[in-house]
Each structure stands twice: as structure tokens, then as C-alpha cells.
Amino acid sequence: MRNITVYDIAKEANVSVATVSRVLNDTAPVKISTREKIMSIINKYQFQPNALARSLISKSTGMIGVILPDITNPFFTEVFLGAEHEARDKGYTFFLCNSGGEYYRESEYLSVLNEKRVDGIIFLGGRVNLVRNKPELVKEVAELAERTPVVLINGNLPKCNIHRVVTDEAFGAELLTQHLIDLGHREIAFLGGMEHIAPTVQKLKAFRRKMEENNLRVRKEWIVYGEYSVKSGKQLMNRLIDMAHRPSAVICVNDFTAVGAIKAAVERGMRIPEHISIAGYDDTPLSTTVIPELTTVSQQSHELGRQAVQILHQLINREKIRKLTLLQPSLVVRQSTGLYTEQR
Predict the structure, then answer these.
(1) How many other C-beta atoms lie within 10 A of the C-beta of residue 71?
(2) Where are the alpha helices (DSSP H) in 74-157?
(3) pTM over 0.70
(4) How would residue 56 be classed by pLDDT, with cut points 50, 70 and 90?
């Protein structure tokens, strides 16, 4: 059977193409008898409208582009799942772009998404998390945002008036630090993260601030930078353990790093939290699969994704909405942190 077009349906029904389009898209009233006649022909040929053709008429593709740095990281996966759930309810599909944190790949994806004429873009990680950004990287997103709605998740771009959905990551670090202090810990280390990544800087500043508020010293050698992986967490924790004087508690930049830290401590014969308390950040599914289960901070990852799609949907429909949506994190206390004891 040959491919049937709206023109064929219009000819057989003896109506205009515009009338067929109104029936297909339900955009305007059509006389009941005419609608039934058109639907009968559609069903007879099992006609399915071409998505591209429909987009040319409606100026909408029903597609959202998502750029993220690492789909294997549970935090980004959880954010995406929240976005996907909301997008399905609103009739959108996704074009998922896994950049690996490479800025040139982000640029390639921005170009592809523009060519695909997506209705909007959600951007998280990579360049939107840099403390100092290259002007050309910022300009690229800013220029696209003038034509296509863009929402940033837990990130920012300097001198750009782009809508953002963020968790107050600094407040989350304060909650975690105060939790350990309340347990009696006075010597606390900060593990993981990079100095040029804004979320790490925010968490570290909040950690220092909370320690100072409690008149506690932050040892320079106990601020140990590194990557955000389990492997890195293990390596960094071993460096702490090898020091002549060790902290009684460790705050890790994310759950991946904390899992690595726990592995290193256990392999070195330490009991958690009896010998050392270890806390993570993000409350990913990893936090409940490790033994002991991980004390961490929930960033409301599902809600971040859901809110981003809601805002994007409003922007696509040219509705007015505030530029910044701020979510509050919450402390999740589990088994990996405990009261300070002299036994270390």
C-alpha cells in the first residue's frame, strides 16, 4: 500500500487540507458529519501523521533536548527520570545528549538540537558548573536561548538571563556539617571535588563557614580535592588514613566519593561509624546499597527534573515565570555517621 498523505485524505473526503489538519490536531471546530467522514478515511488507511510535517504546521516538534555530563552518575539519572515523568504527562519526548563533561561535545549537541528544532533545552553539568567560564562557551548558550527556551539545572552562566532550577547546595553542606558537630565531632575533613567547579566551591565555603561558627579549626591538609568517582573517593580516603593525624569525620562531595571512602576505610580495617564517620551528598540510590547505609543530603533530584520541565513548558507557551526556582535540600541520616568516640 502506498503512503497516504493529508492531501489524499482531503481529496477523498472532498474537503480542504486545512480541514483535515484541524481534525488531526483538534485545533478548531469541524462539523460532526465532516469529522466522522475524515476519521473514517484515516482509519481505513491506518494513517499516521508524519511528525516532521506536523511540526512544520504547528511550529512545534514536541521534543525537549537534555544535555547532561554523565548518564552513569545516579544523580543525573534521577534528575532525568523526574524530568521524563513530567514530560510524558505534557506530551513531550526527549533528545538525550550525554556530553561526558566535554565542552566541545556540548557545543556539538547544542548545534544538533538547534537543527532538530527542539521546543526547549534542559542543560545540567559541564560548562554551567564552572566557576570561571570562557566567554565563547557562555555566548553559545546565550544566543541559542534567544531563539529556544533554555533551563539550567544546578548551574549558572555569567551575565545570562536564563531560567534556572537549583537546589541550595550550600545549605545542604551546612546541614551535614552541623549534623557531625552535633554528634561531637570536632575534626572534620572535606573530600573530593574540584576547585574550578562551582558546586564544590559552594559546599566547601559552607563547610568552612559552619566550622567557624562553631569555633572549630579547618585543617588545610584535610581539604582533599579530586574527582567525583568511587575510585577517586577510595584514593583520597587512603591519603587521609595515611596521615599522622586523622579526622574523626569526613564530608564527601557526593555519594560516589563517599562509597569509595567507605571501601578504603573498611579495607584498612576501620569500622564505620565507630572509627570514623563518613557522609555523602545527593542521596542517590547508591546511598542505601552500601553497608553501612550512607548519611547524605537529598537534593530532591526528581523534583529538580520535574520543575525544569514545568518551567520549560511555560516558556514554550510564552508564559511569564520567575528566573530562579530554588529548592531546599534535606539531611538524610543513616548508619555511616555516629557519635564521636576516642576509639579511632
Answers:
(1) 15
(2) 74-89, 103-115, 135-145
(3) yes
(4) very low
